[in-house]
Design goal:
The structure is a homodimer of 372-residue chains. The first copy, chain A, is built from 15 helices and 16 strands. Chain A is α/β, with parallel strands linked by helices and 372 residues long. Chain A has 2 domains: 7-268, Queuine tRNA-ribosyltransferase-like (TIM Barrel); 277-370, no CATH class. The interface between A and B is large, with 37 and 37 residues.
Chain lengths: 372, 372
């Protein structure tokens, strides 16, 4: 990878936690960072202008959905994902692997790749490591992910081992298939909840040599304790000089713990998806707008929050919008939740820079226990 | 009505068409004006900030929906509709009449009022002229509407006559029920497509003396020619010194023709509802984003439009959002359509001020015939 297009530097540490700067062709990203999820070339309900106002610096989009609709060729013709959706900042695309294994019908896994049926028009599609890279190059993501197999939870140790070996062979093919030097490629460490398999996957993935490393196959059904156990054992062994990304996680508490163990990047649908279901993240814990106690509550969602939603609207109004299935409710809740996540990560970075992450964690758990 | 709270002045005329200024406790409105519809205390998908940016100066909200959910007491407690939805400019509320007659189940019409069943919780509710005014006073609208019976189309002349006499008795009760002098009350002229009944309703409604007059019961199924016939016969006989409001109309062409015949105020769900279904209004006519010709079209919806949507996004992207049922598509389309309607009314006002409405109409039809 060409340093002029992509680099990562650790700028501060506090025990195992670190702050860093990720440089990409579309600008710099301060880590630890939370990436809002823009599955279908849109972070649901939000304009790119609002995402920038919220402070989002890097978003994730999904190869699987976009290859099926509208197709990578249309997106490429419209100037890639950045031009198509008018998001000027960095984008990470997943490889389609996770979705093929969690969403696709009539799936057949072969050494060559995965055969599945399109949910848009029923067409049979073969997604291979080479194809996943070709699509991600057409989309023009700043960071691409290797195509990997994502085994279900629970799986036996033997199944996980077979699967991670296939993922390693696919990872080598992904690296060979890459043709552009202005897009980074991250490897994905699998191994489920088995620490020796995680270690094996870690070593062999590092051997291939990627621009960054992700932990895959977590937050797929195991309990939070198991996830933190894997993270605490593996995160600090991931290369120090490369960004460390935990895929698909999680609650504010999950993010805080995983940063504590040395991880840098996160994505999750939780703030956006929960928002649409009336689930609100606040500085004193999560609340749900369906609760009738909010029906005439004039307070904002979170009195500590400075987002447009909290500066203008009452819980009573937001509850009314939610109960009436009004789109504006989904919008205002999403704006708040993303604002909360982005602000939370900024507070974590500041705590690391000031070497007071332990105090920050203590305060975090105290606030929540007081309000529960 | 106290002049210091509410007044209307005609400021320019071109043949029967007029420009005016409507003064209300929440600011002035230039007429002819289009009112976006905010049924459930939200113009669907839009924030109040966006409505202001689009140039909306007066919106409509629905008594029927709001009395059922969240209820006028909660809204009153939150500072009325203006405070509840954070819209600082004027609001007109309908009386609930039209919705009771078009939407409600198990409806029984009596001299006293209408008994119907709530769609929210199945409760039996009696809506009377007095209750409709009480609710609109609690909502705090700048302009309230009389509670009237809205007979279906087609109805016989006898049915329409019986109905308009009931509506006249209800109109007198509405006027008597009104207790606040900072809210205007408009009367509604009924009579279906029968010109002699319209004339009769007009005269008797004027006799009661309201702050403005509306034409109700049009655009309910009759063809556009019939509607224009009624408007052309009745509009110019409505009091010159009071605002003239045509309820529930219509396409840009409808608005232009009705302004031409002397009407001042309009509301319609068309720009917002069509937007959510991919229907886009442009300066060269209506288009539908479902059409596959737009799938890789890099042009904006309307090259003549300066709205956020047209300044930033391609038809290809907006079609993708529509085909993918993404909320952002509904938002961006709504923003454009409302911007188009508001701008169109501003252009009409300018044409009247410059006494060139005939030339404006000619140009309007020419552009559309060239592009159809």
């Amino acid at each position: 990878m060409d340093e002029k297009f992509f680099s990562f530097q650790v700028t501060a540490t506090d025990q195992k936690a670190r702050c860093g700067v990720l440089r990409t062709p579309h600008g710099s990203v301060e880590t630890p960072v939370f990436m809002p999820v823009g599955t279908q070339a849109t972070v649901k309900t939000m304009t790119p202008k609002e995402l920038e106002e919220v402070g989002a610096s890097l978003i994730l989009s999904n190869t699987y959905h976009l290859m099926l609709r509208p197709g990578q060729n249309i997106i490429k013709k419209m100037g890639g994902l950045h031009g198509f959706m008018q998001w000027p900042k960095p984008i990470l695309t997943d490889s389609g692997g996770f979705q093929v294994f969690s969403l696709a019908n009539q799936r057949v896994v072969k050494e060559e790749g995965v055969l599945f049926q399109s949910y848009v028009d029923g067409e049979k599609i073969l997604l291979t490591p080479e194809k996943a890279i070709e699509i991600q190059e057409a989309l023009g993501a700043d960071i691409m992910m290797c195509f990997d197999e994502c085994p279900p939870f629970p799986s036996t140790q033997k199944e996980i081992e077979t699967s991670l070996n296939l993922s390693l062979r696919w990872a080598r093919r992904c690296k060979r298939a890459k043709t552009k030097n202005n897009q980074a490629l991250f490897g994905i460490i699998q191994g489920g909840i088995f620490l020796d398999l995680r270690q094996q996957s870690l070593e062999q993935t590092i051997e291939i040599d990627f621009d960054g490393y992700a932990l895959g196959g977590l937050s797929v059904g195991e309990d939070q304790g198991r996830m933190i156990e894997v993270v605490s054992e593996i995160a600090h062994r991931m290369p120090e000089s490369k960004p460390r990304y935990l895929m698909g996680v999680g609650t504010p508490g999950d993010l805080l713990e995983c940063v504590y163990h040395g991880l840098d990047m996160f994505d999750c649908v939780m703030p956006t998806k929960n928002a649409r279901n009336g689930g609100i993240f606040t500085s004193f814990g999560a609340i749900n707008l369906a609760n009738s106690q909010y029906k005439d509550d004039p307070a904002p969602l979170d009195p500590d929050c400075t987002c447009y939603t909290c500066q203008n609207f009452s819980r009573a109004y937001l509850r009314h919008l939610f109960m009436s299935s009004e789109v504006l409710g989904a919008r205002l809740n999403t704006l708040h939740n993303l604002s909360f996540y982005v602000t939370f990560m900024r507070q974590i970075r500041q705590a690391i820079q000031e070497k007071r992450l332990d105090a920050f964690r203590k305060d975090f758990y105290q606030r929540r226990s007081q309000n529960s």
